[in-house]
Input
Amino acid sequence: MEKRNFLKSIGALGLFSIVNKTSLKAMSAEPAFNMVEPLLPLADQYTLPPLEYSFDALEPHIDAKTMEIHHDRHHSAYVANLNKEMSTNAAAAKLTLETIFASMAKYAPAIRNNGGGHYNHSLFWKLLKANTTMTATAPGGELATAINTAFKDLANFKDLMNKAGTGRFGSGWAWLVLNASGKLAIGSTPNQDNPLMSVSDFKGYPLLGIDVWEHAYYLKYQNKRADYLTAIWNVINWDEVAKRYKEGKMMKKK
Ligand code: MN
Output
């Protein structure tokens, strides 16, 4: 039962006074995303997932050379370095990345950087899809309603995401998350951190992540990060974002 409905129903029954301070506190505690389904099955966790489309599929918005270098060299390096790190940490190697992220401070910076890099990129490739129409893709259904409720409309949402991306100094990611209060929120993380990490200032279940490292756009857009962010809305895979929104809502109930 929703907290509000619960309070309304016990209020209507005149039982509010018997609810003691302890249980009120427990009800107001925010549920944590401590049961996140793994993005990568444990058996495949330390291998580079293949791109599900060709390097040139996102042209002209994201060029083929950038995709090739980004996937085959940058992402590949995160996987190789994570493997190197995990080969000396047998206990960590038995855990999902999500479990490791939930206790991130316990692990070496190399696991944070390379585990984050592997997770974030594995997610990022799924969040993009081919679109040669020059018309930006758009969300539908419940996700569209939630975005409009939280951010007024899609244009304003994109503007806020782009600001999160351009406002991130140096390297990092812009995120749309479902936070522990069940609300959509926009923020950013530095380096290869992500909102599942216990050490992150910005937390939630990631629905959409946009890579704003220079390696994601420099060949085509050079220093113009804002132009890359404008273009990326042409190739967002909203079906994947909607799928994650549903997952996030299910997780919150656990
Ligand atoms: Mn990247």
About this structure: The longest helix spans residues 64-86. Residues 1-31 have pLDDT under 50 and may be disordered. The chain has eleven helices and three strands.
